[in-house]
């Protein structure tokens, strides 16, 4: 079956690294013999991000971007991305989301897509915690935090073959994404912060999903700007998420 590949990038003040990532994605697109698109949600950036996006969109016809008038948070950017993809692409198409700061290697996208299609999965997560995955340049406290959060979320929202609940590097079957959006009345994402990635997986666990992981080498040493994640706020968000999703189940 023919299908399109859509790369989705939520971006907020990513001027230092997004050009390098878009160059890599442009090179990657030439390797596919099918439709290839890059869609960026510019979440109210105040640096030179939009100028960079305009430059690439004018240079490459398969690159486009959407603008939030002001910063709304990662969750809202992902929500906008999902709504756009579900409206403009088909059920057989594939959406790959990754961070816009050049810490995620796009070179593994073909393998992630192949795994999704060959194993007839709904979701493939680029995971730091599966065999072959690792983190480079991340502090010990951040590593411990990531693993603790993963264990907590796995306890409350178990999904077979999934260990990394917070990785934003994911490959979705668009048909499944549309189904989930319908089940939750387009409220698949309600969190505005970084906990939104865990929220998506938590909701998927309530409606059933065939998922797998592909090893990710997180190259945090390539990050050229300061992390925007507030650890204490995100941890609090995880505990709120556990209560909220377990109460709502698959009803909303």
Q: How would you sum up this structure in a few lines?
A:
This protein is 42% helix and 18% strand. It has 252 residues and is an alpha/beta fold. The strands form two sheets. A seven-stranded mixed sheet has the order 3-2-1-4-7-5-8, with helices on both faces.
Keywords:
252 residues; alpha/beta; Spore Coat Polysaccharide Biosynthesis Protein SpsA, Chain A; two-stranded parallel ribbon; 9 strands
Kindly describe this structure.
This protein has 252 residues and is of the alpha/beta class. It has one domain (5-248): Spore Coat Polysaccharide Biosynthesis Protein SpsA, Chain A. Helix content is 42%, strand content 18%. The protein has eight helices and nine strands. The strands form two sheets. Strands 3-2-1-4-7-5-8 form a seven-stranded mixed beta sheet, sandwiched between helices. A two-stranded parallel sheet has the order 6-9. Helix 5 (140-156) runs parallel beside helix 8 (231-248) and helix 7 (196-207) packs parallel to helix 8 (231-248). The longest helix is centred in the C-terminal third of the chain and has 18 residues, at 231-248. The two termini are 32 Å apart.
Task: Specify Rg, calculated over alpha carbons.
Answer: 17 Å
Q: Kindly identify the CATH topology.
A: Spore Coat Polysaccharide Biosynthesis Protein SpsA, Chain A
Mean pLDDT: 87
> How many beta strands in the DSSP annotation?
9
